[in-house]
Amino acid sequence: MDETSPLVSPLQDSIDYNYCQSEATGPRTPGSVVRVSAGSPGRSRERQPLLVRDRGNSPRDPHRNEFPDDPEFREIVRKAEQAIEEEIFPEIICQGSSGSYFVKDSQGKVIGVFKPKNEEPYGQLNPKWTKWLQKLCCPCCFGRDCLVLNQGHLSEAGASLVDQKLQLNIVPQTKVVYLASDTFNYTAIDRVKSRGKRLALEKVPKVGQRFNRIGLPPKVGSFQLFVEGYEDADYWLKRFEAEPLPENTNRQLQLQFERLVVLDYIIRNTDRGNDNWLLKYDCPMDTERNWETDWVVVKEPIIRLAAIDNGLAFPIKHPDSWRAYPFYWAWLSQAKVPFSEEIRDLVLPKLTDPTFIKDLEEDLYQLFKKDPGFDRRQFHKQIAVMRGQILNLSQALKERKTPLQLVQMPPVIVETARAPQRANSESYTQSFQSRKPFFTWW
Ligand SMILES: Nc1ncnc2c1ncn2[C@@H]1O[C@H](COP(=O)(O)OP(=O)(O)OP(=O)(O)O)[C@@H](O)[C@H]1O
Ligand SMILES: [Mg+2]
């Protein structure tokens, strides 16, 4: 564990968890979220140019994509880098409000989705005009005041981390990666510099060799593995209405749906429309005949869910009631079914284990602190919201509520504070809408 982690106080055994009432006033909206101050300490670092001290392929390159604990992921990113070297460039995804790219391998097969930080919905280099227009015409409504701006790539990777820790297995693996490509949106200056360096290398190799990096500067962003054969949930849900699923398959869908609810609720996703989760429905047409017994085996259809587009999560406060960013799945019929034993058994033991929660927070800290705009105070607020969500979710699971009842629970935030007087105990106070605090132990 990193010494500088803000999550571990020197008085680790005496952390006081102080539950505060959320600022949100609309507990009846499905789910609920704080403005990032313009003068936050991370911002000055954020604006500093990236200093590239090493050549692109040097092992000391700060933008080298190394994942020592995940060689499979490293291999996929290596294939993407190789393809870009062969000029098989990532392709912008036309739909959507930001710069997101389908990344290919050398054969042109899509293997990942890359979302550069500076092309995020509210990034300086977002190539889509809709956000530019919004910034121009309606600056007061620009951005989501409950989210840290330009942290979408971290939110994507954070969602994947939460997914893996809880063994939900619904988020295609996502990590923070550096890529450079001609097809990304660069400033004219970056392009001119890159062309100039290339020219210098060709004309005066001795001078050119002194440049640290010849091509365009790598962009930091989230890289999510591409999942094949999936369609928007919207599409499938409409089809299933017209052609109801067999009972077993419907049950499978319900169990996968519950995993989505758990993920979204914990990370407090503010962008979960039914176009931001995908379904794969494999309905085998063929049947197998066992010639010895003369039995015909009918294969069960298989349904799988993929939770994509997790870039607008991990808010620093619950959303205001006038912009509640609801979970759109709360209006589906699946949200009216009580949580299953399966999801309870999978996540409740983890969510009620303080060590698990601390580990999760520490992993998120290690991920988020790599961003030059990282701000501890904001991170604490993000964690306070997440803890509140986990508290509500645990209660809902224990009481066998439905996902709809879960999103109707009053939002809670859990703040941590040092309490030297309470050594050797981890305790917190909590107050809901009633403002009546009561004490409990984690
Ligand atoms: N991991 C993935 N595997 C397969 N397809 C994907 C994946 N990620 C995204 N897509 C496809 O690309 C489309 C756009 O992706 P996504 O919603 O993440 O991008 P976006 O730019 O954030 O869009 P928007 O702003 O509209 O939400 C999705 O609707 C989906 O069809
Ligand atoms: Mg989307």
Automatic annotation (TrEMBL):
Top-level taxon of the source organism: Eukaryota
Claim: ATP-binding is one of the keywords in the record: yes
Places the protein is found: Cell projection, Dendrite; Cytoplasmic vesicle; Endosome; Golgi apparatus, trans-Golgi network membrane
Keywords recorded for this protein, A-Z: ATP-binding, Cell membrane, Cell projection, Cytoplasmic vesicle, Endosome, Golgi apparatus, Kinase, Lipid metabolism, Lipoprotein, Membrane, Mitochondrion, Nucleotide-binding, Palmitate, Phosphoprotein, Synapse, Synaptosome, Transferase
Domain PI3K/PI4K catalytic: 87-416
Location, primary (coarse class): other
Coiled-coil regions listed: none
Annotated Basic and acidic residues bias: 43-70
Enzymatic reactions: a 1,2-diacyl-sn-glycero-3-phospho-(1D-myo-inositol) + ATP = a 1,2-diacyl-sn-glycero-3-phospho-(1D-myo-inositol 4-phosphate) + ADP + H(+)
A Gene Ontology molecular function term of the record: 1-phosphatidylinositol 4-kinase activity
InterPro entries: Lsb6/PI4K2, PI3/4_kinase_cat_dom
One Gene Ontology cellular component: lysosomal membrane
GO biological process: endosome organization; Golgi organization; phosphatidylinositol phosphate biosynthetic process
Membrane topology: Lipid-anchor; Peripheral membrane protein
Pfam family of the protein (one): PI3_PI4_kinase
Name this protein carries in UniProt: Phosphatidylinositol 4-kinase type 2
Gene: LOC115201568
